Amino acid sequence: MKRRIVLMLFSLLMFVSVAMARDVTVILMWDANTEDNLGGYGAYVGDVIGGPYTKFKDIPVGTEEVDYIYDAVLGTSVTKYFVVDAHSNSTPPLRSGYSNEVFMVYDMLPIVSATELTASLDEDNITFTWKQDDIERVKKWKLFSKEAETEFTELAEIVYTGQAGPQYTTTEAMTVPEGEMKAFTFALVTFNNLGVFSENSNEVNITIDKRIPAPVYKLRIRIKAE
Fold first, then answer.
1. pLDDT per residue over 206-220, tens digit each?
2. Which of 114, 137, 180, 190 is placed for a possible disulfide with 198 were both Cys, Cβ 3.0 to 4.6 Å?
3. How is 152-183 classified by DSSP, letter by letter?
4. Considering its fold, how many domains does the chain have in total?
């Protein structure tokens, strides 16, 4: 029986340095076999389409899921191909053909920064626009803000929707109490699907001034006759 397998992915989003690796786990899942003599499954990985494959795990009956952990090296891009087979409980076991093949691209290459970031203020709402090259590798952007000489902190996460265009936009609210003035600096960071991130975009500055003018004193009247 051919098994349909799907691929799920999660990543440990901790950067150590550009020379280090990151453990990336792929979760393979497939439809269960129903044969009475089913003994289990085997999971295989290869470096090219169609194999050859190397078995990396035996999976017992009743488990239709397996993890594959790969040390993805920053600065590289590697594709891995996966299949699963079933085997009987006889000795020696009889093995099925391979399932459909699925693949995972471990894209750890550098990603470029957003450019031409701008910001416009409407009351408490700030609308940001920017441009992004290499958009097919973009998973999301993170918007960071800071005041004065403080460190940048994350303000918002903007997930790329797949609509490629010359310009991208988001609107965020910045709350400033009445009677105060605050100056903010913003920058964007671009991420791919494995959490590889770019350098900061250009910075933009916005000042929100909610200081109330002092009362008017010494109001006078002068009459002018023509």
1. 999 999 999 999 999
2. 190
3. PEEEEEEE--S---S-EEEEEE----TT-EEE
4. 2
The Cα 50–Cα 29 span in angstroms is 19
Distance of CA 198 to the CA centre of its chain: 12
Distance between CA atoms of residues 29 and 42, nearest Å: 12
Containing structural domain, residue 119: 115-209
Note whether 98 and 17 are same-domain residues: yes
CB neighbour list of residue 38: distance below 8 Å, 6 or more residues apart: 61, 86, 87, 88, 89
Edge to edge, the sheet with strand 204-209 lists 153-159, 140-147, 181-191, 204-209
pLDDT tier at 19, thresholds 50, 70, 90: very low
User: Residue 201 domain-assigned?
Assistant: yes
Same domain as 185, residue 168: yes
Tens digits of residue pLDDT in 188-197: 999 999 999 9
* Tens of pLDDT, residues 112-132: 999 999 999 998 899 999 999
